[in-house]
Structures are given as C-alpha cells and as structure tokens.
C-alpha cells in the first residue's frame, strides 16, 4: 500500500507566508473600518458640539448686562429773598477751620466710570502656540444675567467633567462675568470654551479641533459693512446690535452665525 507523501519544508513555508498575508490583509481591513468609524464618530461629535456652541452663544447674547449710568449732578436751588438779587446777597463768612478734603468717589460709594470695567469687551489676547510662537487669539468678555451654559446642559451632550463644571460655575449672583476664549488642548487641538471669571468656576469646553475662529460685532451707530473685531462697551446704548461668530474645524465643518443682542442695565429688571 503506497504511503502518502508529506509536506516539504518549502511547501510549509509557502503556506505560512500565504496565511500571514491573509491575516495582515484582514487586520488592515479591520483597522481601516475602525478608523473610518472613529472619523465618523469624531465628525458626529463635532456636529453636536457645534450645535451646543450655537445655543451657548445665543443664550449669552440674549443675557447681556450693561453698566449703571453715572447719576446726573444735582443742582442746588437758588434761594433768594423776595426782591433781592444775587448781588445783594451777603456772602457767607469764611470758616475758621480748614475744611477736610472731599472723600474720593472710589471710597464714598459714588459711581466712578473710570473704576468700572467694561461690561462688553472683544479683543485679542497674546498667548503662545504649541511650537512656542507668539500668537493673538480672540477673546470676548461679557457681563450676563445667567450662565450661558444652562441651555447647553439641556441640550444633553457634555462630558461628565464639563457637566460638573456647568453646575459649579453658575451660582446665583447679581451678574456673572465670563469669557469665550480659545485654548490649546494637547489631545483635541484648539478648543473654544466658556470660562467663568466672577464668580470663578471651572471652564466648560464647547468645541474642539478649531482651525479658524473669528468674532466681530455690528455697532448700532455703524453701517452693516463695518464689523469690528475689537470693541468695548459699558452703557447699554453702546453695546453692539449683533454678534457674529465664524468657525471652522479639522473635520471640515464650518459655521457663520449672527446673534442679535438683548441688553439690560444692571439692577433693572429685564
């Protein structure tokens, strides 16, 4: 009875090589599928973040607070006796003791606009890029009636850390001062976030992977062709009529929004 021929060493090596090729191809296809899924997940996440950012900025633009105007100087009424003229009035006798100097407005509680910060500020902040270069990024500081991230919480998609920050950074207060700022995240790149200033709190990340961001405003006294990217206001009549935000991300998403503002004076019910 003839015996079956065994595999030679060369045949075994060829079979092993073919199996390795098939395994590598399968792993490559699987990695490609996972990569495509991750890319779709990142794009979907950015779409959700983009929507949340829109809600947050809209809420902020509708909750602006302006400073209190300076009180008008009080005019003391002139009291003259009947039939007398100012020239006939006897001047008061000089005081025997030298009067004390007036108390500065900053100590007496009287309004002093020079001591009050602007309630709306759009400017460029100097910072360092990841490669050590000096760059200037837009920053917008606002006085608000309520925290702008309340609506983002209701939108339902924030990380646990950002959700906790949202709750901790919105305590009840007369007004809230905070800023929309751009910071570098080592894992997610340039990130737009809301940072509470007063009362202080944890920043809330809004949108990551930024490749472009532009803030500008439409002042009430200027034409629609002029949109300054540096602006400051204290009184309600000086606040911009519209806030514009242009964004682009590394996933190819782009937005160009215009938000109409709603401004109330501090201490006045909306």
Short description:
This protein is an alpha+beta fold and 270 residues long.
What does this structure look like?
The protein has 270 residues and is an alpha+beta fold. The chain has a domain at 39-67 and 113-265. It has four helices and eleven strands; from the N terminus they run αβαββααββββββββ. The strands form three sheets. The chain has a six-stranded antiparallel sheet with strand order 6-5-4-3-2-8. It has a three-stranded antiparallel sheet with strand order 7-9-10, with helices on one face. A hairpin with a 5-residue loop joins strand 2 (120-128) and strand 3. It is elongated and about 110 Å long. It starts with 8 loop residues before the first helix and ends in a 5-residue tail after the last strand. Mean pLDDT is 77; it is low at 94-115 and 166-172.
SSE diagram, text form:
Blueprint (H helix, E strand, L loop, with lengths): L8 H53 L2 E3 L38 H4 L11 E9 L5 E11 L5 H6 L4 H9 L7 E10 L3 E10 L5 E4 L2 E9 L12 E3 L8 E8 L4 E7 L2 E3 L5
């Amino acid at each position: 009875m003839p015996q079956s021929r065994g595999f030679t060493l060369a045949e075994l090596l060829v079979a092993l090589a073919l199996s390795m090729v098939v395994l590598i191809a399968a792993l490559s296809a699987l990695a490609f599928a996972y990569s495509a899924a991750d890319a779709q997940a990142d794009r979907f996440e950015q779409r959700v973040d983009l929507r949340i950012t829109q809600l947050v900025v809209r809420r902020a633009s509708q909750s602006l607070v302006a400073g209190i105007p300076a009180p008008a100087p009080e005019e003391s009424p002139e009291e003259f006796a009947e039939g007398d003229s100012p020239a006939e009035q006897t001047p008061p006798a000089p005081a025997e003791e030298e009067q004390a100097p007036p108390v500065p407005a900053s100590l007496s509680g009287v309004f002093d606009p020079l001591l009050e910060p602007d309630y709306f500020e759009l400017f460029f902040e100097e910072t360092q890029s990841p490669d050590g270069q000096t760059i200037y990024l837009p920053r917008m500081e606002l006085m608000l009636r309520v925290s702008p991230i309340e609506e983002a919480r209701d939108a339902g998609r924030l990380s646990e850390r950002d959700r906790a920050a949202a709750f901790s950074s919105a305590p009840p207060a007369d007004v809230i001062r905070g800023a929309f700022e751009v910071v570098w995240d080592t894992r997610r790149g340039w990130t737009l976030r809301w940072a509470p200033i007063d009362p202080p709190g944890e920043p809330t990340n809004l949108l990551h992977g930024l490749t472009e961001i532009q803030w500008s405003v439409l002042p009430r006294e200027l034409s629609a062709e002029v949109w300054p990217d540096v602006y400051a206001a204290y009184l309600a009549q000086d606040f911009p009529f519209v806030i514009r935000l242009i964004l682009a991300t590394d996933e190819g998403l782009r937005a160009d929004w215009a938000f109409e503002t709603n401004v109330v004076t501090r201490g006045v019910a909306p």
